[in-house]
Amino acid sequence: AINLSSERLVPYGLYLIDDGQTQFLWIGRDAIPQLIADVFGVDERAQVHVGKGRVPELDNDFNERVRAVIQKSKDHKSLGVGSITVPHLYIVREDGEPSLKLWAQTLLVEDRADQGVSAAQWLGVLREKVVQ
């Protein structure tokens, strides 16, 4: 797990962003071709189907691990007290559909807001004031 900030997302990576109701599988704009092939079974990032969907079942260890992480997160959320929903998975390319990208980015709650400070910076300032 990493902080929910776009500053932490490296462009060659693949990330699961999950808020308990919706899951996004974020594909960085410079995602490693072997990563794309292992997870999605296609040669190029542009061939990955974006939007609501699922990760295809492929016969390789990495694909199985990615699907297991996604399923474990869904199971954890759906088994919660009073939960009757299972999160939907949306596949997002960093340089893809702008509205889907923006939706996923709204979950990155530690990003700076309109020239302000990030959540981590704000907590640091608050901590300093409490110590004084």
UniProtKB/TrEMBL annotation:
It comes from Photinus pyralis. GO terms for biological process: COPII-coated vesicle cargo loading. One of its GO terms (cellular component) is endoplasmic reticulum exit site. InterPro entries: ADF-H/Gelsolin-like_dom_sf, Gelsolin-like_dom, Gelsolin-like_dom_sf, SEC23_SEC24_subfamily. It holds the Pfam family Gelsolin. GO terms for molecular function: SNARE binding; zinc ion binding. This is Gelsolin-like domain-containing protein. Residues 2-68 form the Gelsolin-like domain. It comes from the Eukaryota.
